[in-house]
């Protein structure tokens, strides 16, 4: 029982981190057909900048905010300088974002050195508490809470504001959105920034969770996020959280029972989805 | 009467295909101008070119004395042109309400008035207010699409085959609504249904192989069996 | 502008090109006999191996327009197959050949399956799925310790004929030339023309009655098998294999080489391989001078981005464009003169 509960909590926490990464990817893809292979780089930048800020200022909150701001700024630069010049050309886009991924991870090493950094949770999130015989690690709960908070906030914006409506409409039919007088490129820039900010948030949250951060983790997590995007359906925001939880849980349970097959299980899931439902389990786009 | 929209020798490529090879037309304010022509003649492409969805490569498009052929789609729309595409372009996962909200540029009184007006014209939309657009019937989708183009203070509406695939009774309903809107808005209508086209049209243009080949007042076409047979395949 | 004039320019161009290629090939064959720097010879051997790898990538990206981010997995499959066979059995030629056959089988099956799964979807899916598959192979190599010895990898002995550095240099050089000629033949064959048609306009090719997906899968399989072959040579050259052969770095090498060298040209892949390998060699040495050179790959990352943005045809494509233009100008002028005179 204890094990089961712990694995679930673990899986949910990982799932939330993946969700934060995948949500941006899926919306960016849905809106503009851009699959950002540098998304993991933004994630790693969030992790490093946030961890560094936390270490220098001593404030975890500043660390988190700093990471998000880093993500927003890098997102803006990426969209303007890297993505915009190659709109509409899929091959060029795919190639260029991977190039950016390379540059971003190398730059990380230039700024913070090639070795991994250690990251710890602030005191108020350290340790665990007990509820009805099960031990709950505070920081995991924190991640889940932040993830849910972000999910509901974004969901609220998507459902109840004009800009949210435009984003959802844009995912379905971007020509029509423009024919209604909306400059979708501006909307896209905004979404790209927010998506990058979420990726950076995911990165900084991961630090204390895994204890160390390193430049390669960007790609590792990005691959999980890609799997989630496929399973959840490209362009589907609700799909991304459901799929992320699925992938997080399956990863956590597999890692406990058959650790060697954790990634394989998720890949298998993705392959099945690709064969039978290429638009994703929860998506509408092909 | 003033000319609201004018196309002068407009040419458009889609990929490497030369689709529009010389479209010239004048749309007068307050009239319904009907574009006719066989399947594949280039009617839809003409409307899409006006909207900037298939940008032209040659010629000029003037709207209210301003050249708009090189503007991006959203600016064209902001100038006051509404578009009802052939496939209606409904956002399938958004409700009827949300579909209309996306379109509304503001919440001003005049916008609300127009919304009320169009909802009275199409009570079905009110009935299915919270229903996802994708689940509406063909006719209801058409109404929603027209309503969406109408809610803003557009001076010109481009409507692409509103009668396509609709039952005669629904066609009549859509027709009535267009006749009503005619009072306040200039309309360019693509229509294969000649009954409908001739009832509400003031002026016609015939497009053939990507070129405007004939035009004149609707009465002329109504009487000219020969022309109808030649270009439209109907007598 | 006479079409004949253009044709003449082209055939002179092709002839000249062939002569240049032949001279370079001869120079490369003679090189180890004139220069006895062992490290240079090893470096050149690496260039040949990566040139094969990059050409296999070019077949996908440059000739068919498919982006793969998991090309390392084919490379790694070849590298491990040969390593495992040499280690577990005996370092003899028959076992080596068996390893080659196994490599061909596995790479063909994997590329077939991945292609079947994703090549009918948008191009993003193939890039993504290959990326994910490659990471799966990386994990496999890390975890299947009985065969792979985990992260650290293992050394092994190679069959007699590969032991001499000079012989191996020549083997790799000849392999590179053969692969180049084969792929040149392949891309100029009717099948290759279809692939290029797919790259230019997929829908049109489909509407002309070609089953695009099948052709894409063929390209994917041929490319995968060749990459596996490069991997075999690679691990034989090192007599060692570890998990690095499955990493993103290897795929990135292929990308940098083909993109910077020039996609869709084959020769660009070879030039790119030379460029990157030599840069790697020199710039790593420079790391003693300044630490920034330790991160030499960053320069290439930036160059790569700029090339994708501004010179999507790479070095070779861009040079060819310039040349063709100036040649055309010359013939135009001479024809004008002829007409005038
Ligand atoms: N995306 C495209 N690619 C290539 N050709 C196209 C494309 N879109 C349209 N065409 C071609 O352009 C021509 C004009 O098409 P268009 O849709 O404008 O015709 P239409 O007059 O609206 O016909 P219909 O009455 O059937 O709606 C047709 O021959 C069509 O095949
Ligand atoms: Mg049409």
TrEMBL record, chain A:
Pfam families: BPD_transp_2 (PF02653). It is a multi-pass membrane protein. The keyword Transmembrane applies. It comes from Bacillus yapensis. This is Branched-chain amino acid ABC transporter permease. CDD domains: TM_PBP1_LivH_like. One of its GO terms (cellular component) is plasma membrane. Belongs to the binding-protein-dependent transport system permease family. LivHM subfamily. Keywords: Amino-acid transport, Cell membrane, Membrane, Transmembrane, Transmembrane helix, Transport. The chain crosses the membrane at residues 12-32, 52-74, 94-112, 132-158, 187-209, 221-249, 256-276.
Automatic annotation (TrEMBL), chain B:
The keyword tRNA-binding does not apply. InterPro entries: AAA+_ATPase, ABC_transporter-like_ATP-bd, ABC_transporter-like_CS, BCAA_Transport_ATP-bd_LivF, P-loop_NTPase. Keywords: Amino-acid transport, ATP-binding, Nucleotide-binding, Transport. Residues 5-234 form the ABC transporter domain. Pfam families: ABC_tran (PF00005). It comes from the Bacteria. One of its GO terms (molecular function) is ATP binding. GO terms for biological process: L-amino acid transport. PANTHER family: ABC TRANSPORTER ATP-BINDING PROTEIN (PTHR43820:SF2), HIGH-AFFINITY BRANCHED-CHAIN AMINO ACID TRANSPORT ATP-BINDING PROTEIN LIVF (PTHR43820). Belongs to the ABC transporter superfamily. This is ABC transporter ATP-binding protein.
């Amino acid at each position: 029982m204890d094990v089961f509960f712990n694995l679930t909590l673990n899986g949910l926490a990982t799932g939330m981190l993946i969700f934060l990464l995948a949500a941006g990817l899926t919306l960016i893809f849905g809106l503009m057909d851009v699959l950002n292979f540098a998304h993991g780089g933004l994630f790693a930048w969030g992790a490093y900048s946030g961890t560094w800020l936390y270490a220098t200022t001593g404030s975890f909150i500043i660390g988190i905010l700093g990471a998000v701001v880093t993500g927003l700024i890098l997102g803006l630069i990426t969209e303007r300088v890297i993505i915009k010049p190659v709109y509409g050309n899929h091959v060029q886009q795919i190639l260029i974002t991977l190039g950016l991924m390379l540059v971003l991870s190398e730059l990380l090493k230039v700024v913070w050195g090639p070795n991994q950094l250690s990251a710890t949770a602030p005191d108020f999130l350290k340790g665990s508490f007990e509820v009805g015989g099960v031990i709950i690690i505070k920081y995991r709960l924190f991640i889940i809470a932040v993830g849910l908070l972000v999910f509901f906030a974004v969901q609220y914006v998507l459902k109840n504001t004009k800009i949210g409506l435009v984003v959802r409409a844009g995912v379905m039919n971007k020509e029509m959105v423009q024919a209604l007088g909306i400059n979708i490129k501006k909307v896209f820039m905004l979404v790209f920034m927010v998506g990058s900010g979420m990726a950076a948030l995911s990165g900084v949250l991961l630090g204390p969770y895994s204890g160390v951060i390193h430049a390669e983790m960007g790609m590792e997590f990005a691959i999980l996020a890609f799997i989630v995007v496929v399973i959840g359906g490209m362009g589907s925001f609700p799909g991304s959280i459901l799929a992320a939880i699925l992938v997080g849980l399956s990863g956590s349970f597999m890692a406990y029972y058959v650790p060697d097959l954790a990634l394989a299980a998720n890949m298998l899931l993705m392959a099945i989805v690709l064969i039978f439902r290429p638009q994703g389990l929860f998506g509408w786009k092909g | 009467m003033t000319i609201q929209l004018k196309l002068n020798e407009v040419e458009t490529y889609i990929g490497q295909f030369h689709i529009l090879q010389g479209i010239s037309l004048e749309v007068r304010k307050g009239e319904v101008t009907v574009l006719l022509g066989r399947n594949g003649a280039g009617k839809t492409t003409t409307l899409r070119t006006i909207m900037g969805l298939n940008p032209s490569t040659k010629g000029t498009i003037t709207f209210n004395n301003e050249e708009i052929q090189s503007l991006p789609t959203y600016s064209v729309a902001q100038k006051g042109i509404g578009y009802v595409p052939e496939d209606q372009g409904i956002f399938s996962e958004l409700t009827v309400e949300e579909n209309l909200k996306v379109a509304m540029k503001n919440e001003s009184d005049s916008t609300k008035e127009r919304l009320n007006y169009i909802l009275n014209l199409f009570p079905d939309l009110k009935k299915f207010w919270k229903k996802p657009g994708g689940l509406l019937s063909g006719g209801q989708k058409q109404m929603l699409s027209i309503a969406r183009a109408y809610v803003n203070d557009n001076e010109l509406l481009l409507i692409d085959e509103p009668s396509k695939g609709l039952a005669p009774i629904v066609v009549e309903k859509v027709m009535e609504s267009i006749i009503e809107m005619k009072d306040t808005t200039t309309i360019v209508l693509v229509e294969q249904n000649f009954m409908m086209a001739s009832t509400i049209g003031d002026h016609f243009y015939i497009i053939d192989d990507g070129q405007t080949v004939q035009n004149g007042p609707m009465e002329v076409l109504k009487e000219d069996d020969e022309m109808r047979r030649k270009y439209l395949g109907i007598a | 502008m006479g079409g004949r004039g253009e044709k003449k320019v082209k055939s002179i161009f092709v002839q000249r090109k062939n002569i240049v290629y032949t001279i370079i090939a001869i120079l490369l064959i003679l090189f180890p006999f004139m220069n006895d720097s062992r490290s240079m010879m090893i470096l050149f051997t690496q260039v040949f191996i990566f040139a094969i790898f990059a050409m296999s990538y070019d077949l996908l990206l440059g000739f068919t327009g498919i982006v793969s981010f998991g090309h390392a997995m084919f490379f790694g499959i070849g590298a491990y197959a040969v390593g495992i066979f040499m280690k577990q059995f005996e370092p003899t030629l028959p076992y080596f050949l068996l390893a080659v056959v196994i490599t061909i089988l596995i790479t063909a099956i994997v590329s077939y399956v991945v292609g079947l799964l994703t090549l009918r979807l948008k191009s993003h899916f193939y890039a993504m799925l290959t990326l994910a598959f490659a990471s799966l192979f990386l994990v496999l190599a890390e975890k299947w310790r009985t065969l792979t010895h985990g992260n650290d990898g293992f050394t092994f002995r190679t069959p007699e004929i590969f032991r001499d550095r000079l012989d191996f240099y020549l083997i790799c050089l000849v392999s590179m030339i053969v692969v180049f000629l084969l792929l040149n033949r392949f891309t100029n064959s009717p099948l290759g023309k279809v692939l290029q048609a797919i790259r230019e306009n997929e829908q049109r090719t489909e509407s002309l009655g070609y089953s695009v997906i099948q052709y894409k899968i063929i390209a994917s399989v041929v490319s995968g098998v060749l990459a596996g072959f490069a991997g075999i040579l690679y691990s034989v050259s090192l007599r060692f294999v570890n998990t690095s052969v499955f990493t993103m770095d290897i795929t990135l090498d292929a990308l940098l080489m083909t993109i910077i060298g020039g996609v869709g040209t084959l020769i660009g892949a070879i030039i790119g391989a030379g460029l990157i390998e030599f840069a790697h060699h020199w710039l790593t040495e420079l790391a003693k001078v300044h630490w920034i050179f330790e991160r030499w790959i960053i320069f290439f990352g930036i160059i790569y981005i700029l090339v994708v943005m501004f010179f999507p045809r790479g070095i070779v494509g861009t040079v060819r464009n310039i040349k063709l233009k100036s040649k055309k100008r010359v013939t135009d002028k001479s024809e004008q003169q002829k007409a005038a005179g």
